[in-house]
Amino acid sequence: MYKKIMIPVDGSEPSDRAVQHGVVLAEKFGARVLIMNVIQPVSFQVPESFLYADQLMEQLTAQGVDIVEGYKKKFQEADLDIQAETLVGLAADVICEKAEAEHFDLVVIGSRGLSPGIGFLLGSVSGRVSRRCPCPVLIVR
Questions:
Q1: Residue 58: Cβ within 10 Å count
Q2: Strands (E), 4-92
Q3: 4-140 CATH, one of 3.40.190.150, 1.10.510.10, 3.40.50.620, 1.10.3720.10
Q4: What CA–CA distance (Å, rounded) separates 90 from 84?
Q5: How far apart are CA 71 and CA 100, in angstroms?
Q6: What are the φ/ψ torsions at residue 43 (nearest 5 degrees)?
């Protein structure tokens, strides 16, 4: 039933639970897993050199890589094909586009991430993914 499972993460407690659920499902179905972190682009209305946007993006990318590699290492003992990836873009857009382009069978995502205030104002990433994603979405609380 599920051969490719995507698990978007941000290092929050809900994403920890999503990874645990996703790995259990992957073990049950023998699925490949992609643990993915999406970094929102830094965009300011002032010159980049003033705010060190390049250095900030490098730091955020390094943190994203650490997050996904940490999850991958944690579940290394599981006999699974687990990949880790960090991408840049608007999280819900990147998740849905990748799910469609690479034919994922399931997205397992935490109910809330690291920015609940933004989720309240704009709608959470998990909510947007559940409405737009071409495959089933499991939202883990």
A1: 11
A2: 4-8, 32-39, 82-88
A3: 3.40.50.620
A4: 18
A5: 23
A6: -135, 120
| Angstrom distance (rounded) from CA 45 to CA 136 | 38
User: Strands, DSSP E only, in the chain?
Assistant: 4-8, 32-39, 82-88, 106-110, 137-140
CA nearest neighbour of 79 among 27, 16, 28, 7: 27
Tokens of 92: 């819900």
pTM for the predicted model, two decimal places? 0.88
Distance between first and last Cα of the chain: 23
Query: pLDDT tens digits for 87-116?
Result: 999 999 999 999 999 999 999 999 976 554
